[in-house]
Design a protein that fits this description.
By secondary structure, this protein is of the alpha+beta class. The chain has a domain of about 150 residues: Thiolase/Chalcone synthase (Peroxisomal Thiolase, Chain A, domain 1), CATH 3.40.47.10. About 35% of the residues lie in helices and about 20% in strands. It has a 9-stranded mixed β-sheet, sandwiched between helices. The longest helix has 22 residues. It is globular and about 70 Å long.
């Protein structure tokens, strides 16, 4: 058995940003137009008027101030309210693969590695832009990696589940090194005309390099262990798929985009995640005082405060549980990796931290790391 370590991470940031104020202005214009078009029904009490959104509500509800997106114009156009990404020919690199290649290239450069050192690619994300061929194989081909690749989806927990899978491949000798790539175009499955959730998601791509300790750079992270958990729930759901995408009657169905029962998710996920992390700590004989940092999934600032309090026995502090929500919004599986990427360089040899993701499924995954 080989020992698997986390060598480095990479981050691709889309070219466009949308502030809360910009998003709200677009939504409110759309709402006013919709209300005018349905004035008769609203006056008769048959239809409920759309209410305005506001930036203060968004930040208080989520902690989000802005987000990066692959297309800004379509999202902010009140007549469209969705990203418009041009379809590419089969001979062109797909947009998800392009994002993934950029993040992977940065990860390899930071580790001083070449594609010849890598044997496998896992593309782990909430939504793939097509059924097949696998986006991971397209990324593998674009990078010039010999070996194998496959896609996986565990929604917002895809990154941690992917890291554990990669570590197992390295430990058993299936691969010397594995790139786990998380290209998330979350704006594509967000309902921008729904006041309760139009602000939640952003786009991004991350990459994590998992490899044998014998070939890793000196400044790597030892993987102390992982703990994965899933419990079925309908409270976060997206029903879009190849079986319904071509059916005209489903074209405008609200459930073909992201939907959630927010209050139920809040109440159920927090104790689940707290239990996953503390159970994992017990297995590793760790106390809260041993933990220097929690790199949590970036879904909601209040959720992270409560999870941190549960695990650490005190309120969330920026130094203990850093947030990137304010800049990136919820980026699904990539969120915890962005937090690690941005807020891990200051930790010293021997320091211990935990990457933890959680989301639809329900799913949750924790990866405990110790700086070499």
């Amino acid at each position: 058995m080989h020992r698997a370590v986390l060598s480095t991470t990479g981050l691709f940031v889309p070219p466009h940003t949308i502030s809360n104020d910009e998003l709200v202005a677009s939504f409110n214009t759309w709402a006013d137009t919709w209300n005018a078009e349905h004035a008769e029904g609203i006056a008769a009490g048959e239809i409920t008027a759309k209410t305005h959104s506001n930036s203060a509500f968004i930040e208080k509800a989520s902690g989000i101030q802005s987000r990066y997106v692959m297309d800004k114009e379509g999202i902010l156009d009140p007549a469209i309210m969705a990203p418009r990404l041009a379809e590419r020919s089969n001979d062109e690199l797909s947009i998800m693969a392009e994002m993934g290649v950029a993040a992977a290239t940065q990860a390899l450069e930071r580790a001083g590695r070449s594609v010849d050192d890598v044997d496998a690619v896992i593309c782990a994300a909430s939504n793939m832009q097509r059924a097949y061929p696998a986006v991971s194989i397209e990324i593998q081909n674009a990078l010039g990696i010999n070996g194998f690749a496959f896609d996986m989806n565990v929604a917002c927990s895809s990154a941690t589940f992917g890291i554990q899978t990669a570590a197992s491949l390295v430990q058993t000798g299936q691969a010397r090194a594995v790139l786990v790539i998380n290209p998330e175009i979350c704006s594509g499955h967000l309902a921008f005309t729904d006041r309760d959730c139009h602000f939640i998601f952003g786009d991004v791509a991350t990459a994590t390099l998992i490899e044998r300790d014998t070939q890793a750079p000196a400044d790597h992270w030892n993987i102390l262990g992982s703990h994965l958990s899933t419990i079925f729930s309908n409270n976060i759901r997206n029903n879009f798929g190849f079986l319904n995408s071509a059916a005209p009657e489903h074209k405008d169905s609200r459930d073909k985009l992201f939907v959630q029962e927010g209050r139920k998710v809040f109440k159920q996920v927090i104790p689940m995640v707290g239990h996953v992390i503390t159970t994992h700590m017990e297995k590793l004989s760790l106390e809260s005082t041993d933990i220097k940092r929690l790199w949590l999934h970036q879904a909601n600032a209040a959720m992270n405060r409560l999870i941190t309090a549960h695990v650490m026995g005190r309120e969330r502090e920026d130094d203990v549980s850093p947030t990137v929500l304010n800049e990136f919004a919820n980026t699904s599986s990539a969120g915890s990796i962005i937090a690690f990427h941005r807020h891990s360089d200051d930790l010293q040899s021997g320091d211990i931290g935990c990457i933890c993701s959680f989301g639809a499924g329900y799913s949750a995954g924790s990866i405990f790391l110790q700086r070499a």
